[in-house]
Amino acid sequence: MQTDHVVTTWKKNMLFHTTNPAGELYIETSPEHGGEGTGLRPKALMLSSLTGCSALDVASLMKKMKLDVADFNIDIKAELTDEHPRYYHKVYMVFNFYGSALNEAKLQKAVDLSIEKYCGVMAMFKKFADVEVETVFHHQ
Amino acid sequence: MQTDHVVTTWKKNMLFHTTNPAGELYIETSPEHGGEGTGLRPKALMLSSLTGCSALDVASLMKKMKLDVADFNIDIKAELTDEHPRYYHKVYMVFNFYGSALNEAKLQKAVDLSIEKYCGVMAMFKKFADVEVETVFHHQ
Fold first, then answer.
1. Which of A85, B15, B94, B103 qualifies as a cystine partner to B123, CB 3.0-4.6 A?
2. How many CB atoms lie within 10 A of CB A53?
3. What is the pLDDT of residues B112-139, one digit of tens each?
């Protein structure tokens, strides 16, 4: 059994410090709600969590499969419900691969393995959102 | 309709850069999986997202209700499933309030409003996890 532990502490006004097993960061609300521009928006951290989790799966598989990729990113757009509490109910996630020798079949396999099997954050997102995934190959 | 947009980009090896509407951060896997100690763990960012979202609700309500609080934090422990994909199935969240004039009833009301009504990240967590919430008042 593994347990993760995080502590989020009030610093002042609408600013919070929060820990991570590997470091720390600051969280703050937007200026229109009293933020002063020091911290990150908490809800969007969910999208960094999802893309980061899946990107690490894919990077690990690229290494294992010895795939030649020059560059790689995940672009994610997530739509919030109109009603409160507002949560991400629709997610569009695009994997972009760049390179001169992209192996499309193997890269697609790596993406599919992450999305369907490995990524725990994706498993959580699937419980509350429709997640659409696209893979785009940019041959250079 | 509001849409949040994040881009997560491969930097090298097992390190990724990721954006946020208010800034940026780095994500990396643990050293035992090839990380080199530069970035944060992506899954635990979910816990910072949840505590940050709820903490901002409570800070905002403390302001509105003119509550006198010297210090305030949220301590969260989240248990991962043993089976893959591993997700947080049990969450224990403790709100700690410190001060010499804590209004327990109103602070509890602020916590309850966030947990039950305002916090969108909590609404997402409730779809995949059992969330236990406790409030502790530290009179000083």
1. A85
2. 27
3. 999 999 999 999 999 999 999 999 999 9
Contact between chains at B42 and A48 (C-beta distance less than 8 A): yes
E strand residue ranges, A49-118: 71-80, 88-99
| CATH code, A42-139 | 3.30.300.20
Task: Assign A1 a pLDDT band (cuts: 50, 70, 90).
Answer: confident
For chain A, the structural domain boundaries read 1-40, 42-139
CB A119 within 8 A of CB A57: yes
Residue B29, judged by CB atoms within 10 A of its CB (0-12, 13-18, 19+), counts as: buried
Which amino acid is residue A109, in one-letter code? Answer: K
Residue B1 has pLDDT above 90, yes or no: no
Mean pLDDT for A12-27 is 97
Which residue of chain B has the CA closest to A75? B7
Choose among A129, A136, A133: nearest CA to A54. Answer: A133
Are A120 and B87 in contact (CB < 8 Å)?
yes
B49/A49 touch (CB, cutoff 8 Å), yes or no = yes
pTM: 0.98
Q: What is the DSSP letter of B85?
A: S
For B17-22, what is the mean pLDDT? 98
